[in-house]
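Q: Could you fold this chain for me?
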Amino acid sequence: RLLQALVARRPASDGSAISSEQACHRMSEALACWRLGQFQQSKQLLDPLESQLAWDARYWILRGMVANQLSQGSVAALQAYRRAIALDAGRADLHYNLANLLRDRDAAAAEQAYRRSLQLDDLQPACWHNLGALLHQQQQFEAAEHCIRTSLRLDPMAANVWCDLGNVLQAQDQLPAAKQAFTQAISLDRLHGPSHVNLGAALVQGLQPDEALSILQRGVELEKSSADSLWNLGLAHLQLGDYERGWPLYEARLHLKSFASTQPPTAGPMPSSLAECPRVGAPPLVVWCEQGLGDAIQFSRYLALLDAAGIPFEFHVRPTLLRLFQAWTGLAARACLECSDPDPGDQRPQIPLMSLPRLFKTTLSTIPAALPYLRAPEPPPPPLQVPQPPGGLAVGLVWASHAANGAMYKRKSMPLELLMPRLMDLLELDLIDLHCLQCGPDQTQLQPWLHHPRITNWASRLNDFADTAHVVQQLDLVISVDTAVAHLAGALRRPVWMMLPHGADFRWLQQRDDSPWYPGTMRLFRQPAPGDWQGLVDQLHAAFDALFLLDIAALASHKLIP
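A: Sure. Below is the predicted structure, expressed as structure tokens.
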């Protein structure tokens, strides 16, 4: 009330020059307006004062604060903070404010500013917290954890900081510790919606979706406008196999912050039901791939359902999938390259590929699982022909997912050195030929074993997934982590052994060693505990013994030739 009275009693300016003392009073009034949330009035008070107060760092700090409120992250705010620092570089709060402004535009400069602020005053819990959050975004998880824990030592009562600690721990697969952090946040603030949502997400990742449901439902109640809460609740239902509830909630992904930069290929509407889809003679429905390459292969099976329903469509795909979908599905010209610059005048209806299960109201019992749904249009060309092994099986191998997938890459990929000892035994016993289908930087892990005459590295000969499909079609077995090649083998109805992390994706359900998406052809091997690839490899050893009806380890230890 005092601030309001101060602002209300200020006489209107008559346009005459004011003294330095009056300028300082006006700046105090501008601060009062800022604290009242009257940012435009504050700006009007500050603008005429520049000539008298250009030497005062406090003036430029307030100019920056006001400009940032009027236009988040504006250039004017940035310039004001830098002017203030030029006048008084020893103020920790200035560097902190500058860092907050730079976070979304220049992460390196923001980090430098946070660190400079902490050099001047290392007892700022908010600064430690924001630096930790920035490092988390850059996937520097250990450094982020250190910063956030430092913030909590300075202020252990901040629920949002405990929540962010849980996020960092979850990114490092430290699920028990992450759950404790989220629980601590909720104990401090029972209305903290993000902590409920993140605790539910951790329970889903920890294969506890039943427990997650009530937590996530509370998160939805507290965060009614949050797409994250609906998204995670949908994942819990899907992991439990409750597709009826899960698919509609899965649509929340389209409103996630991580989805903001993804543009639909047209400006047309997205049908909410089959009845809203176009019919023959109308402009086609544009189906587009909004997620990974493996997702595109797995869910392309729904295109046959669109055909059966008499719905005309085009399928927009990435370059590495174009030949596969044109030639191996019969789509021909209906499969076309995705457009990086959509035409705003294109009003054709559009739908993301992974919204088709919702459109067709898919349940566990109605998954379209007729295999194969990819078929070779012609024999493999000579460079892609797999020689028949003189004995045993031709086995394909992929041990790492796409390196650009960040935390998902780390969770899904396994060290090749864990697999190779048993595979080398099988090679020496003439039980397999090994065909490595790993592309990208992880193929270099194969280097120590490339001398073996029955190991083939296909990476240099595979230009796209049509080439990979030719090779996979000729193999007796594919062993793969959760990546696109596994989906490709499943779609071709080739036997697949899938190696899954403990917190596997929702599509693999729970505690199953088979998949309703690839019945009769895919076998699932799961980590016994988070990060326990060795435990999974032990399961593979037993599977090889059963496959060949041999004790491979015992046989390999008794060499016939010294």
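A (continued): The two ends are 95 Å apart (CA to CA).
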